Amino acid sequence: MKKVINLLLLSGIFFLTIGIHQVSAQKWGYIDSEFILNKHPDYKLVQNELEALKAEWKKEAQNLEREVKEMLSTLKAEEVLLTEEMYQERMAAIEAKQNSAVAFNNRVFGINGQYYQKQTELLQPLQSKIFDAIDKVAKRNGLAALHDKAASMGLIYTDPRHDYSEFVLEELGIENK
């Protein structure tokens, strides 16, 4: 019985040692996705389109807010001339307009709003290209893991010789100037 336990213990230590050596022998690297995105010419086009949409929608939201303020100031000016019933009708119209403005902001700029959806739609093809390039670079260089410096808060220090961002740019056909 003692021999079996010793044999199991020795074989466990042996396999654990082999596993540790295999893990430490794996090659890893990192990229900076923010750096890569900023270097990609299509990203600037996407950003410009998103900014134009954002400005348009922001203007609509501001117009709705301005209309509410105008309705409130008109109500204040005419308040003494209105009956209670007329006053309540106008307040209800103002509240409806305010609710409409809030609904517009939520629909456009809220979580999963139109702006977010458009951003996802425009960035998806670019992200796919970059991911394909990252995949090719990782396979070509025999990397077991490739971390994103821009997205990972867990990287405290990175040695520049493990930075594969330039290789990804090269794979995308982008010159780093």
TrEMBL record:
What stretches pass through the bilayer?
A: none
Q: Which InterPro entries match?
A: Chaperone_Skp, Skp_dom_sf
- Keywords annotated in UniProt: Coiled coil, Signal
Entry coiled-coil feature ranges? 43-81
Could you tell me which SMART domains the record lists for this protein?
A: OmpH (SM00935)
- Which SUPFAM superfamilies does the entry mention? OmpH-like (SSF111384)
**The family this protein is said to belong to:** Belongs to the Skp family.
Instruction: Output this protein's name.
Output: Periplasmic chaperone for outer membrane proteins Skp
Q: Which organism is it from?
A: Belliella aquatica
